[in-house]
Amino acid sequence: MKSVRTFTIHKQKDKLEQDHILHYWDVETSGFVPIKYAESTDTTQVYKEIPESALLWMTLPGRLTGQRVFYIEYDSIKN
């Protein structure tokens, strides 16, 4: 069984009305896989199934710029 973590992502201030999409890199398929958020507020989205030590990618639907790749270390986002 994969080890997973819970993490709260803060939405971009200029895109609060949109759902952000979090993906993780799956080494078995060599591609990014979307993760469904567990909870959403006006300013945050909570994810409860983030694989430990995964490379993550946050996207906004319909937007090609401003996307970022990162990982989580000690409950902090690292680029």
Number of helices: 0
What do the pLDDT scores average to? 85
Major sheet summary line? 5 strands, antiparallel
Low-confidence stretches: none
Beta content comes to: over 45%
Strand order of the largest sheet: 3-2-6-7-8
Through-space gap between termini: 27 Å
Give the number of DSSP strands. 8
Order of helices and strands: EEEEEEEE
CA-based gyration radius: 12 Å
Description:
The chain has 79 residues and is an all-beta fold. Helix content is 0%, strand content 52%. It is built from no helices and 8 strands. Strand 2 and strand 3 form a beta hairpin.
Secondary-structure topology with pairs:
Elements: E1 4-10, E2 21-26, E3 31-35, E4 39-40, E5 44-51, E6 56-59, E7 68-73, E8 76-78
